[in-house]
Each structure stands twice: as structure tokens, then as C-alpha cells.
Amino acid sequence: MPVFIHDSFAELPTADWDALTVGSTIYSSSGFAGVREEELPPGARCRYLLARDAAGEVVAGMESYTFLRPPHGLFTPADLLEGVIGAERLAHLAASPLSIAAGWSEFRGQVPGRPGVPAEQRAAAVGDLTAQAMRLADAADASVLAYYYLPLEEAQEVARAHAGDGAVLLFHDVETVVPIGLWNDFDEYVAWLPSGRRPRARRELRRFLASGRTVRESPLPQVVKEIAPLNSALMLKHGHTAFDEERVTSVYDRQGRFLGDSSTVLISEDDGKAVGFALRYRQGDMLYGRVAGFDYSAPNLADYFNLVFYHPIAAGVGRDVRAIHLGLGTFEAKMVRGAQPNPLYSVFVGVDRPLDADADAVREYNRSRTAAFVDEHAGFVVGGIDADSWLPA
Fold first, then answer.
1. What is the pTM (predicted TM-score) of this model?
2. What range does the domain containing 369 cover?
């Protein structure tokens, strides 16, 4: 299947790209592709790959990036591969350029495809896309090609396409998703929670409403300057000193330019003053929680959980939204309020030569790390966790 390479976002046929909705997220949209291209560090390069059938119809797509060094500490392949490949190979790839396919940043990868495509045609398209990604990685003198933060099914799909290249499939992290489509209103949501958790949910909503705080909804481009100090305060609280108001404003000005039509900002106001916000993006019947921020001089009235959970549920958003994706981290706080965990895997392929991973070490890596997550967090998950379904077949 022919694969067409587009060397920049300006050349990308965005209508074709956005028609690929199977396996897609807001982070695979053309809007986020434009955001990521503008955010590329010096020396990095991006290409957009589109596989088309004999009639010229687009079947599947893939982003392909090359970096002189990892763009973020959490995109460092040596950190995950340590213990499953040899020390000499590990040192070599750590000192070499890196190629990342199927998206980077936002901690979510994807290989979007056209709806209704037969499984055999989808597999052929993924095979041709991954082969082209390998060629681009080789041309960039990369030592490893990485596919980060993929749902298990897509990770296995990519690993199968790279079976002849010695692909290594590793458990990486967990994303949380609120199944908001299960409930029409707040009472249905509370009834779904285990009985011991219901009083807290009602208490947190009641306290927020009794305070007189209100929630205002606005498109992102209209409120960038308003939310910038709140997000900067959150980032500084967690040690990210580079995110002053000027940088935050630049980041969300950019996202507003590319994603303004998809953005929804909920702002918590106290006597007309913004004291908290949550930025979400809408794609189809999904919402994606992107970022939040707060005025830490104001009392904490569970603003985050009211903005992310309780207000949307009470407003009946679940009638036309199936789920709210909340990304990684803060697992217990999210899951005790109903968020469900979904495992994410990463796939690594040696470019200049195979990684020669130890198969037993890979299996033990995945088994032990998924088991550790389940042991620590399953008790917080409504309905528990089916640990066996988290492991590769």
C-alpha cells in the first residue's frame, strides 16, 4: 500500500487526516499535530505519513519524529529498556538520535484509521506505515524507534508489524477515564459508587455549591490570560519553575490557535474572581482533560473534582459524552471518584541493529509491573481490575 509523506503541517491534507477516527484521540487530531510541530526542539523533525488504498482513499496515518535527544524525560527509551536488553546496547541507544512514531507529548500515542476498513487492510496499512517509519529513523541515524503510550491493542498491532525487527512491547503507564456516559445525572452517579464513597461525593458537591462559587464555561482563546496565572501557580507548586505566566500564556495561545473550536474551559469563580479552572478538549463523544490551575490563596473546596467530575455529571454532560479522559497520575484520587484505569504500552524497535531483548525478561517486566499496579490500586477501582486482560496475549 503506498505511503505518502508530508514534510510539514502546512503540507498535511488535514481533512484526510481528521477522517481517520478509528483508534484516534484529540491528541491525534490535526490541531494537536500543528501544536506539536511548533513545539519541536532544535534539531527535531516531523513527518506525517498517510497510507492510501488503490483508489486513493486514506486508510491509516502515523506521525514520525526524529530527535537528537529525548524531548522529555519520560520519553527516554533507556529508562524502560534497562534490564531487558544488554548494557552495551543500552549505552549505544542512549547516546544516539531517537525516532518516535505515532505521536509524542500528552502521554498518549495512537495509529488512527478510517472507519469500516477490513482488518486485513488495516493490518497492511499499519505494516507499510511502520516500515516507512523505520526508513525515516534509519535515515536520521536513530538507534531506536519508539512508539509511546499506546493502548494494548494498538501496541500489539504495532509490535506484530515489527515482528521481524525484534520489537519489544513493555507496560509503561496507566491512563484514567471517567465513564460519564453511564449516568444521566448526579444521583445516578452517586448510586453507582460503592456505598462508602457516596457521602464524600455528595459532601464535596454540597460544600462547593454552598460556598456561592459558580462555574463559567468559555472557549480557550477567550480566557488564556485569565487562566495563565492559575496554571502557573499549579506548575510552580509541583516544582516546574520554568512555567511562569509568560510561558504558560505562550503554550495556551498556541493551543487556542490550533484547537480553539475543540476547547472548553470551566472556570470556578468566587464573587466574580477566577479561583480555579479545568481545560478540556472535545472530540466526538469524548472529552479530554488537558490541564487545571488554582488560586492557592483561596480556600480549597474540591474545585478540581467539582470541575472535572461533579459539575459535568450534574449538568448531564453524560447524555452526549461517553467518557472524560484524565490522563496519567493521581490515581487514587481519581479512581475513588469513579475513574477507570486503562493500561498503556510502549513498543521499541532497534533501527541500526536489533535490540536483542531477553524474552523472559520482557514477560517478567510486564507481569511484575502490571501486578504491582493492580496490587496497589485495584481496591480503589469501582468494579476492580481484570489483571489478566492487561497482559499481552
1. 0.94
2. 3-174+345-390
